[in-house]
Design a protein that fits this description.
Helix content is 58%, strand content 3%. With 184 residues, it is mostly helical. The protein is globular.
Amino acid sequence: MKSNIYTRKGDSGMTSLATGERVRKDSLRLECYGTIDELNSHLGLLLAEVEEEAVRQRLVGIQNTLFVIGAVLASPGRNDTPCPITGNTIERLEHDIDATAEGLPAWRGFTLPGGCRAAAQAHVCRTVCRRAERRMLALQAVEDVQPQLLAYINRLSDYLYTLACNLNRISGTEEILWDKTIVV
């Protein structure tokens, strides 16, 4: 039996949330989990550039967690269900940040995004992650967003920054520091 991926139900600019509720495709809630999906896709591209197996495993774990976050965001009004992102989830990510930062030089100033391809892609992931956080904060101003989701996304951007620095270190690529005196 053939299954079509297209349903034509979204042709009018509407789509269904996980609850079945129909909303406009440009709604703030869809913007939130759409940005999470975009981040997940960028992480997939980062995975194509990373060779270290431990980092690859961690990134796949983060991708799975982002699917969970997307599902929570696509299910408004289910506050009676415990948030699957817990303090332990956030603590594991903090541990990963600390472990990734080991061996990095002390902070010397703002770095320009770039370096080796993997680090440059990690910076793209970081900026998309920050956008996801901003969208989630905007949604939180008008609807309930579980605070653990925001905490996780905030830590994730820190992890991605640290990962970018570490990937540059591993590849032997020197980071370029921001020079505020240069204005072109």
